[in-house]
Design a protein that fits this description.
heterodimer; A: alpha+beta; 1 helix; B: eleven-stranded mixed β-sheet; 49 strands; elongated
């Protein structure tokens, strides 16, 4: 915590000291950040539903005469 | 001539064994006293073992009166003189006590005090070397010509006082005052230390609750335990729970039927009804869309006729059918704990210049020999410092187990092998022949030493390992392993339904109540059916800072089963056939314990300030030595010469000198008795400083007024801190900066995470579009007429195009994900800091004022 506060209130050091500098090791490359993207491959899930309904009703079976038969042409 | 053992001068020595023609007793700073005698050639072998080779030399200061015999020299002959055939011989004696090395070593031990001594900037093989110890003291070795006491005398400050010489005390023409080398005015110091910041532990990345239309991706891709996810980071525990069990949604079918059981019916009475409803059992929110719908209205017409007019009664039942697509929203709860193993190389470098405030002695601009640069690399400050002693230091004294020594003479066999005491006792007084063979024993008085081999003593001890052969004398530092609790480790498995065991690998340590358990055979733990892994109870774990030495060599115990090390000093711990003895804790300069060296700065902390002060002392020593720019020689009486020693200064009063006097540290005393003439040639060297002092300053507040914040938040300028015991130099301590990546230990999530978010690229809209595409495809399937083969192909193309916009495809095009960017723990390689610190000028004594006029 104290270091965080110091970073805020003392971004640079006082004149008594030269600000510390970073010197890099020749040829050394810093490691990049790790970037995680978790879940990009998700595709969801689809479900199917259905509804079917049928009904039947009563109907009286009447005896219906057919028309008179046509026995052909008149003589 | 006497024996070596006649170290006390008494009346029995009031005699003259050789006829002395002339004598010169020479005391030169930094050298052993010498005596040159011109004697009548005795015509015998001077170095014959049958002859006495030591001599007492004394002077009667009251010749002719009551004798006042003053002993002036006790020493040994050093060699066969030249011109052996001559009637007179010049033989040289040296005051070289037999215990000189021991005395010097004892003296050096008293000088191993901060800030003058700092093992960090002393090579591990020379940490008890007197010459190395003297390097940062402005002192030289001084041997008393009579008592043979070896002491250290400062090059400017006279420990034994001052002797005044008036103009009447020295011969007028003998005085010579001359400037010597141009005094150095500045020493530049460039010092660096390195260490590896190490730490191990766990970071709780917290819990998350994600709601996503494509949450199956989070479930599937959530990191698994032991997976490496960056430099220095591995997954320790990870859990992703499908809260609504969306992956396991079942589709249920409900159906029903009705049969009219009445005996008499009227037309239109429903005789039967049946339905079937298939629907997924989704918990939580979802989107749905009707894909197809077909219905048929019932029709009864008993009197219907066909096209010929014949009766054709019609009874068509009513029906309805529909299909619907459902897309559930996923709800995923996650947790993750990361294990970090940091190994971050750090280098810190400080650069400063120490100026000497000296009077000018030359105006020649071409003179460049007024500066010097000290470039020095310190030891690895991330490993414990070994207190390595010379054998001489412990000779004749009690030695504890674990004491590490270095034989005095590296030229002898075994002389390059560090030795460690495996049996305590009192060491002998004659150095034994040590062995170069690792583990080989040497008896030295009551002490038993084990050889550590010819390799340079390492400053890093190995960790304990099981089933290992260790020779006697092996030093280890059992590290404290990382562990987690049994409950935390098995939480992921226990939260599932039904609970399952958590896989555990060999060597994993779990804390279970008051004890620890280590896995020796991998398997699972935490299942309600019992553990399949084998766990062995460990009563305690090593504290990570106590060293142990194998006082009995052998083979260590089972792998992973760390012995119950007893950390009490000199207590023993049995480990299969090995017996370990605790030899105490190591001091890691940068702080911490091995494996847990979390310091991010060295020079910015108290221990580092000690090193800075030590480096200042190194520069100070050279400047003080070089400040003696004026050398004066004069001649006085023999009697006055007896008052002088190399531990005194002399003040010479002479009107011809600037200011009428000169003060100097005595650096040479040559007492001459020749041909009836007795005189003393004196050499003194004078510092050309200004005689100021430096005082410490608390500095001026620049941040806020004093008292407004705690002192450690205050910022000050012009702070001056004096190294302990010194009042001639000060420095402004540096304020360290944090590592650039903001990572400190113990690691917390906020230090590690660069960004964390859940990114939703319009998942809800994508699902809606996908469902609409499904519906459209179904409509196309049902409605696009096909009257030819080409029509059929066109229809299929249209449907395929529509289906390519299905829910799955839409969600792949509009992915949602948990986005986490983490800093690397290791491998950044940028933790190299350079600090420039500010020193005051070095105040030096003013022993002569070169700008004064003579007093004549």
């Amino acid at each position: 915590l104290s270091n965080d506060l110091e970073a805020i209130v003392r971004p640079s050091q006082t004149l008594d000291y030269a600000p510390a500098k970073v010197f890099y090791t020749p040829g050394q490359i810093g490691t990049p950040n790790t970037h995680l993207m978790i879940g990009r491959g998700g595709s969801g899930k689809v479900f199917s539903g259905s509804y079917n309904a049928n009904s039947s009703s009563y109907m009286t079976q009447y005896v219906n005469e057919k028309k008179h038969a046509d026995f052909g042409t008149a003589f | 001539m006497v024996d070596e053992t006649e170290t006390t001068f008494g009346s029995e020595h009031h005699r003259m064994d050789e006829y002395v023609f002339s004598a010169r007793r020479i005391l030169t700073e930094g050298e052993k006293p010498k005596l040159e005698l011109v004697i009548e050639n005795p015509r015998v072998g001077l170095l014959s073992p049958l002859r006495k080779q030591w001599c007492w030399f004394a002077w009667d200061s009251n010749w002719g009166g009551t004798p006042n015999i003053i002993p002036q020299f006790f020493g040994r002959i050093v060699g066969i003189p030249s011109d052996l055939q001559a009637e007179t011989l010049t033989i040289t004696f040296i005051a070289w006590p037999s215990d000189y090395v021991k005395q010097l070593q004892v003296l050096a031990e008293t000088l191993k005090i901060p800030p003058f001594y700092d093992p960090v900037f002393t090579d591990v093989g020379k940490r008890d070397d007197p010459m190395s110890i003297f390097e940062s003291h402005s002192k030289l070795i001084c041997v008393d010509p009579v008592t043979h006491v070896v002491s250290a005398s400062d090059i400017l400050d006279a420990e034994d006082g001052n002797v005044d010489f008036t103009a009447d005390d020295h011969f007028y023409n003998s005085l010579h005052v001359s400037p010597g080398a141009v005094p150095k005015t500045v020493i530049s110091v460039d010092a660096s230390v390195s260490w590896t910041q190490t730490a191990r532990g766990y970071v709780d990345m917290g819990n998350n609750l994600f709601t996503s239309w494509s949450g199956d991706g989070i479930l599937n891709e959530w990191p698994k335990p032991l997976a490496s996810i960056g430099s220095g980071l591995t997954v320790f525990t990870a859990l992703a729970v499908d809260v609504n069990r969306t992956a396991d949604i079942v589709t249920s079918t409900f159906s029903g039927s009705y049969q009219n059981q009445e005996k008499h019916h009227n037309d239109g009475d429903t005789l039967s009804f049946s339905f079937s409803w298939t629907v997924p059992q989704i918990h939580g929110s979802y989107q749905s869309k009707q894909i197809t719908f077909n219905s048929r209205t019932g029709l009864i017409d008993p009197f219907a006729v066909d096209g010929d007019g014949d009766p054709s009664p019609t009874n068509i039942g009513a029906s309805v059918s529909a299909t619907t697509a459902y897309v559930p929203m996923w709800t995923v709860r996650t947790s993750m704990t990361l294990e970090y193993q940091a190994a971050r190389p750090h280098t810190e470098r400080i650069i400063f210049r120490l100026f000497a405030n000296v009077q000018p002695t030359t105006l020649d601009p071409n003179v460049s020999e007024d500066s010097e640069t000290i470039t020095i690399s310190g030891s690895d400050v991330g490993v414990p410092i070994i207190d390595l002693l010379n054998w001489t230091t412990i000779s004749g004294t009690h030695v504890d187990v674990g004491t590490v020594i270095f034989p005095n003479d590296p030229q002898l066999p075994g002389g390059r092998s560090a030795q460690v005491a495996t049996v305590a006792g009192t060491a002998g007084t004659v150095e034994p022949d040590f062995s170069d063979v690792v583990g080989e024993i040497t008896i030295d008085g009551g002490v038993t030493w084990a050889s550590l081999g010819v390799a340079s003593p390492t400053e890093s001890a190995a960790d304990w390992t099981g089933v290992s052969n260790v020779p006697t004398g092996t030093t280890i530092l059992p590290r404290r392993p990382i562990y987690t609790t049994y409950a935390a480790f098995t939480a992921a498995g226990r939260l599932q339904f039904p609970p399952v065991g958590t896989p555990i690998s060999e060597g994993t340590i779990l804390q279970d109540g008051a004890v620890f358990k280590v896995c020796t055979v991998s398997g699972t733990v935490g299942a309600i059916t019992g553990d399949t892994a084998t766990l062995v109870t460990l009563p305690t774990l090593p504290d990570g800072k106590t060293y142990f030495i194998a006082t009995t060599g052998g083979t260590t115990g089972a792998q992973y089963v760390i012995p119950n090390f007893n950390n009490t000093l000199h207590a023993t711990t049995a480990d299969n056939t090995v017996v370990w003895t605790a030899i105490g804790s190591g001091d890691i300069p940068v702080g911490g314990t091995p494996g847990n060296v979390t310091g991010s700065t060295y020079f910015g902390q108290d221990r580092g300030h000690r090193s800075i002060e030590h480096l200042i002392c190194r520069a100070r020593t050279r400047l003080r030595y070089a400040s003696r720019a004026v050398t004066s020689q004069f001649q006085c009486s023999y009697l006055r010469g007896t008052e002088l020693t190399l531990r005194k200064s002399a003040t010479l009063h002479d009107y011809r000198l600037p200011g009428g006097l000169i003060l100097g540290k005595v650096t040479g005393i040559e007492m001459v008795a020749d041909g009836g003439t007795f005189s003393t040639n004196v050499t003194i060297q004078s510092s050309v400083g200004f005689g100021e002092t430096v005082t410490s300053e608390i500095g001026d507040p620049t941040f806020v007024a004093d008292g407004y914040v705690a002192p450690h938040y205050q910022v000050r300028t012009n702070v001056i801190v004096l190294p302990p015991t010194l009042s001639d130099v000060g420095y402004s301590p540096l304020v360290p900066i944090a590592d650039e990546d903001g990572i400190r230990f113990p690691l917390e999530k906020n230090m590690l995470v660069v960004s964390e978010s859940f990114i939703d690229n319009g998942g809800a809209v994508a699902v809606g579009a996908g469902l609409e595409a499904m519906r459209t495809a179904a409509v196309q399937q049902a409605t696009i007429p096909v009257t030819s083969i080409s029509d059929d192909e066109e229809k299929q193309r249209a449907i395929a195009l529509t289906q390519s916009n299905s829910v799955t495809e839409q969600l792949k095009r509009h992915p949602s994900w948990y986005d986490l960017v983490l800093k690397p723990i290791n491998g950044n390689g940028a933790f190299n800091h350079v600090y420039h610190i500010k020193c005051t000028t070095l105040a030096l004594p003013k022993m002569i004022d070169m700008q004064e006029e003579s007093t004549s």
